[in-house]
Amino acid sequence: MKLLLLTLAALLLLFQLTPGSTLRCWNLHGKCRQKCFKKERVYVYCTNNKMCCVKPKYQPKSLPWKV
């Protein structure tokens, strides 16, 4: 029983320390990062002063009369 509790505690700690867990932004379609990937764009900044990187399919469409 003690071994089971120790294993569960270790797994929970590992899940908390997993790198890459980023905050979500832009209506949960973007991720807060220091640097965006190639096709991602920045429209707003997150509360932790990182950029909100949004994938192309969730990026707002530009209006044809605004260039």
Automatic annotation (TrEMBL):
<keyword id="KW-0044">Antibiotic</keyword>
<dbReference type="Pfam" id="PF13841">
    <property type="entry name" value="Defensin_beta_2"/>
</dbReference>
<keyword id="KW-0964">Secreted</keyword>
<dbReference type="GO" id="GO:0045087">
    <property type="term" value="P:innate immune response"/>
</dbReference>
<comment type="similarity">
    <text>Belongs to the beta-defensin family.</text>
</comment>
<dbReference type="GO" id="GO:0005576">
    <property type="term" value="C:extracellular region"/>
</dbReference>
<feature type="signal peptide">
    <location>
        <begin position="1"/>
        <end position="20"/>
    </location>
</feature>
<protein>
    <recommendedName>
        <fullName>Beta-defensin</fullName>
    </recommendedName>
</protein>
<dbReference type="InterPro" id="IPR025933">
    <property type="entry name" value="Beta_defensin_dom"/>
</dbReference>
<keyword id="KW-0211">Defensin</keyword>
<keyword id="KW-0929">Antimicrobial</keyword>
<feature type="domain" description="Beta-defensin">
    <location>
        <begin position="24"/>
        <end position="53"/>
    </location>
</feature>
<dbReference type="InterPro" id="IPR050544">
    <property type="entry name" value="Beta-defensin"/>
</dbReference>
<comment type="function">
    <text>Has antibacterial activity.</text>
</comment>
<keyword id="KW-0732">Signal</keyword>
<keyword id="KW-1015">Disulfide bond</keyword>
<dbReference type="GO" id="GO:0042742">
    <property type="term" value="P:defense response to bacterium"/>
</dbReference>
